[in-house]
C-alpha cells in the first residue's frame, strides 16, 4: 500500500447504515445488498475509490448485534481480516464507528458492544476515530441531541474516547455528509495500529488472549450465569427448556473461543 493511500474501517451495529454510508461516499449503488451469511468472502468488503488523486479504501464490516450470527463469529471475521492486512503491512488511517440513535434508551447491550469496539481498537487509536451517530431523520432534533449528549458524557459509552481524541460527527445519510467524514482522514499522513492487531501477532493469532476476546468471554460467562438462574426459577416449564438450549449454544461458543483457532476464514 502506498504511503498516500487511505484505509478506513467502518464498524458498528447491524442497521447502523454502514453499507449505505459507503455507498454515499463512493457513489457505488451496487453495495446496497444483504450479506450472504454462508460465504466468508462476503463478510468483510473493502471498497476502493479515488479522492483528489488519492486512493481511499472503506472497509465494510459485518454488523454486531445481528440476530443471524453470534458476536463471536462476527468478532472472528473482523479480527481475521485485521490480522491478515496487518501482516501485509496495511495499516488503517482511521476508524468510523457508526451508532444509530433511534433506540428509545441507552441499553446495556449498546454499552457492552461499545466496550467491545474499544477493546478492538485500543486507547492509542481513539484519536483516529470518528463516531458517526445515524438515524437523525427518525427523531426530532431535541431528542437526537439529548441522546448524543448522553453518550458523549458517559465514560462507559463515548466519553472516554472523546476525551482521548475521538470526534463525534453526525451523519445524515446524505452524499455530502459521508464525503465530509471521509475527508477528515485525508489530513493524516501516518497510520494507526489497532490493539487487536498487535495482540493477535503477539499471541499467535489466539483471539481468546486478546482484550476483545477476553471481554467477549466474560460477557458470555455472565449471560450463562444469568440464564442458569432463570432456569432454576422456571423448573419444568417450556421456557426453562428453551433457556437450556441457549445456554448450550453459549457454552459451545465459549469452548470454541478458548481453542487456539476455532475456524479460519480467508477474506478476499
Automatic annotation (TrEMBL):
Tell me the CDD domains matching this sequence.
Ras_like_GTPase
Every copy of the G domain together lies at: 8-68
What would you give as a GO molecular function for this chain, any one? hydrolase activity
Q: Which UniProt keywords apply?
A: Coiled coil, Hydrolase
Give the highest taxon in the source lineage: Eukaryota
What SUPFAM superfamilies does this protein map onto? P-loop containing nucleoside triphosphate hydrolases
Leader sequence segment: none
Question: Known InterPro entries for this protein?
Answer: GTP-bd (IPR006073), P-loop_NTPase (IPR027417)
The parts of the chain that form a coiled coil are 224-260
Kindly provide the name given to this protein in its UniProt entry.
Answer: P-loop containing nucleoside triphosphate hydrolase protein
